[in-house]
Amino acid sequence: MIEKTNLNNILFLDIETVPEEENFNLLDAEMQSLWDLKTQYQRKEDFTPEEFYDRAGIWAEFGKIICISVGYFTIKGDIRNFRVTSFFGDEEKILKDFNNLLNNHFNQPQHLLCGHNAKEFDIPFLARRMIINQIAIPDKLNLFGKKPWEIPHLDTLELWKFGDYKHFTSLKLLTKILGIPSPKGDIDGSQVAHVFYVEKDIDRIVTYCEKDTIAVAQIFLRLRREDLLIDDEIIHV
């Protein structure tokens, strides 16, 4: 079925998240206690809640979004381009700008969202942070009452699973085995919080996020047995 999907109707995306505060001690006493309870199973006896706090960015209740990168194809005749842009800065503004993009340009029934592990991470994280920031959830993210076949999301991890639900393949591994140029630059996901809070270099994070978005599109093309994007086809806006 993915071969029949119109590439012009897909919005590819990736998000970068960090702990909501720079360190554990900046949380109030109640949030520290709730973090302790939330992470008991993952930490076991190996880490204290404070030592484990650098991983808070993976939970929407304790993390925040610092960048959303999106990409979309524009195909006219023989000319194919992939336009990439990012929203970054204040989380509320990021979410409102992304919301406006969905509501104004990707709000029709044929429009789809696509990410890698997006159904498990990016989409739920976006929806939860919108609720926390008191932003109306756009229709493309609001899944309440929808049947599985009505959900307008594609996921390259799910496509690669072929029904093997216990299976996980990272974006980096999948690009490697499919012969796609590595999306990773000089940082990886575990370093994003340090780059954000300590180095205060949001530009590095935006570059990293955009590379992942491009990689998702490349994987989708490979799954359709189509030519990969070349640098001249990728436009940063």
From TrEMBL:
Hydrolase among keywords: yes
The keyword Hydrolase is assigned to this record: yes
Pfam entry (one): DNA_pol_B_exo2
InterPro entries linked: 3'-5'_exonuclease_PolB-like, RNaseH-like_sf, RNaseH_sf
Recorded GO MF terms: exonuclease activity; nucleic acid binding
Domain Predicted 3'-5' exonuclease PolB-like: 62-224
Keyword terms of this UniProt record: Exonuclease, Hydrolase, Nuclease
Domain of life: Bacteria
Gene3D superfamilies: Ribonuclease H-like superfamily/Ribonuclease H
Protein name (database record): 3'-5' exonuclease
Lineage: Bacteria, Pseudomonadati, Bacteroidota, Flavobacteriia, Flavobacteriales
